[in-house]
Amino acid sequence: MPEQPTGAQRMTGAEIVIKSLLDQGVDVVFGYPGGAVLPIYDALFKQNALRHVLVRQEGGAVHAAEGYARSSGKVGVVLVTSGPGATNAVTGLTDALMDSIPIVCLTGQVPTHLIGNDAFQEADTTGITRPCTKHNYLVKDVNELGRTLHEAFYVARSGRPGPVVVDLPKDVQFAEGLYEGPANVRHRTYRPQTEADPALIEKAIDLIAGAKRPVFYCGGGVINAGTEASKLLTQFVRLTGYPCTLTLMGLGAFPASDPLFLGMLGMHGTYQANLAMHGADVLINIGARFDDRVTGRLNAFSPGSRKIHVDIDPSSINKNVPVELGIIGDCRQVLKQLIEAWKKRKAKPDGKALKEWWRQIDEWRARDCLRYQPSDSVIKPQYAIQRLYQLTRDMEPFITTEVGQHQMWAAQFFGFEKPHHWMTSGGLGTMGYGLPAAVGVQMANPGKLVVDIAGEASILMNIQELSTAVQYRLPVKIFIINNQWMGMVRQWQELLHGGRYSESYTEALPDFVKLADAFGCVGMRAAKPCDVDRIIKEMIKVDRPVVVDVMVDKTENCFPMIPSGAAHHEMLLGPADEAKKPVSEEGMVLV
Amino acid sequence: MPYDKTIRRHTIAVIVDNEPGILARVVGLFSGRGYNIESLTVAEVDAVARLSRITVVTTGTEMIIEQIKNQLARLVPVHKVSDLTAEGPHVERELLLVKVASTGDERVEALRIADIFRARVVDSTTESFVFEVTGSSEKLSAFMTLMDPLGMVEVSRTGVVAISRGPQAIMKRGEAG
Ligand SMILES: Cc1ncc(C[n+]2csc(CCOP(=O)(O)OP(=O)(O)O)c2C)c(N)n1
Ligand SMILES: [Mg+2]
């Protein structure tokens, strides 16, 4: 037997899994058992330090872990069985990869001697998850298990965060081996650059200070860099007095109530944000990735601006939009460097130009682009979300969403003052994300108000997780903007397919109030505008999971909108614009 | 920034951990993101540090090549990415095995051309030869063109391996990091 390194302990693979998670500071695992992970479930049973949340479908486990991670800043952990357990997790893993969410997902695997034999519940998990994880491992030797798990956590949370899968054959879980704690684990290759090159910082300050029509365009990278990064961003933006817009992923990185905030940008962003992007002479991108939802038609994107791009992932720089100054580093660190350099130089913005720029922006703002036609007889979806915001904002609620129009209205009408309070599936746009994510958020934030702003179609994709919420007494609130349509699909069909509403109407919706009841939740319904405030107040009061069915206008569309293939200055501001500005042929093929 | 839109051929060397799945990761990256692979070779080059070297020949615009390099560098088990084409003078070599099955004049002619290309005969029967040629990809292709009408029945090529000229090494040997 080889000599034991100091501090190494002998235990089974299953015990090593539990020990590693505890040593990583994990307090909860989201999972679902099965044959290939029974030894780990057995080890879980024998201890009390690590909690397990039993979801109702493995897809829910990953979204729950995402919600947990995004609202706490910690790594979310998932445990699922081999074969179908692992394949069910794939959507969530892809979602976490697209949105850069740190996840460690442990999957059971058939014993090593059966791998490749098409054994029962065997799937090539590392093969299937290779393109949808930041990295993955198959552990064949129990002595490698502890080190691999610690490495997995390191990879998941370092640099640009992402999901990591560790595939664990059942024999490895049973085998005895040596466990090594996290202290001695140093990764062979992976050491992302966090501090920016000082010379680039100086160049950035030159550009920023010399700007006449500047705009800060910031995203999820700021959120991922921790709460302090958002504080630093706020400080820096205020130092300059420049306007700031945020991506869908970045909401909360800069206070929504600040007069320098222009609202979200992009396809359903505000008029002022998109036109500021279009008209800017210096664009300061911190932690955003020039996603196609943001840029619109690339050859007309912010055509006159000199661009600075701060990102921890070098592959994000010059991927979609060529920039003049690419700065690799962690947003928190880079913001710190920028503030220091700005102060040291006693840099001053061009007051006269800035005043003129703000005059122009205020003119755009005065268009009041989020305005909608209010109604006394039917609940406007925007109204419902606006009221939800007004009546809960003092409680600093955590908001998750599903995907569709309701998601965009939530982004437009809900103001976030702080990071880590807004959880939405941005990159992948996964319907069914919001409810399990809310479960994870509530686990990380007991006693806080957690609301899933949902669509009636999306919520049905993971409705089974209501059962999880009930089991763990998680008082999540499901606020369904029920328009009886896959509203976003219908909106595109209206705009692009001559109003042929192919399969976008749900004929046989369940009665959500009864459904809530059947799950052991509380069901409520709002049918008239006058019900909305009362229902919201009641919902907040109930200390149990609540499903609120808000029956809204079935035909409302989400504006402003940059149709695909169009540029920022070609926004549709409302229904009247729809007819006037047909979508280009190139735009039709885009999603 | 005005980026050069011309499509160019680049030879890129990648030093990776020699671990299961690494090749699938690299190949998957190219196919998943729609990049070209003209050739790809891989073998362990440092048994102590368990490092392999992948040489990939690819084509693309300046922006795409930059993306390819950044995406490769982003893979967790990748130690080093080096764009030999961009970084200066380097040597590229490929090895070719060609089987020619013919008799009479064709056979004689094949031998004569092989001689000009300094090909080695590594197998011979009364009705066939296997020639081995090393050199640039262009030289190998030229050899194949000439052998084609002379009874060439099978070809095996290694793909390009490459190394920079001069004393500088891609990274320190025996050092993983
Ligand atoms: C898993 C998945 N399937 C399909 C889609 C395409 N899709 C985007 S929005 C949408 C409709 C969503 O309807 P609903 O949840 O009612 O939201 P609404 O747009 O009506 O607010 C669909 C089908 C998706 N985003 N995710
Ligand atoms: Mg709907």
Task: Using brief descriptors, characterize the structure shown.
heterodimer; A: 591 residues; alpha/beta; six-stranded parallel sheet; 20 strands; globular; B: 177 residues; alpha+beta; Alpha-Beta Plaits; 2 domains; five-stranded antiparallel sheet; four-stranded antiparallel sheet; binds thiamine diphosphate; binds magnesium ion
Explain what the structure shows.
The complex is a heterodimer of chains A (591) and B (177). Chain A has 591 residues and is α/β, with parallel strands linked by helices. Chain A is built from 25 helices and 20 strands. Chain A has a six-stranded parallel sheet with strand order 3-2-4-5-7-6, sandwiched between helices. Chain A has a six-stranded parallel sheet with strand order 11-10-9-12-13-14, sandwiched between helices. In chain A, helix 7 (142-157) links the parallel strand 6 (135-138) and strand 7. In chain A, helix 3 (58-72) packs across helix 18, helix 9 packs across helix 14 and helix 16 crosses helix 23 (532-541). Chain A is globular, with a radius of gyration of 25 Å. In chain A, 55% of the residues are buried. Chain B has two domains: 8-87, Alpha-Beta Plaits; 91-161, ACT-like. Chain A, domain 2 (Alpha-Beta Plaits, 2-Layer Sandwich), CATH 3.30.70. Chain B has helices at 22-32, 62-74, 84-87, 104-116, 137-147, and strands at residues 8-17, 39-46, 51-60, 78-83, 90-101, 120-125, 128-135, 152-157, 161-164. In chain B, 27% of the residues are buried. The model of chain B has no long low-confidence stretch (mean pLDDT 95). Chains A and B meet through strand 6 of A and helix 1 and helix 2 of B. The site of magnesium ion has 8 residues of chain A, from helix 19.
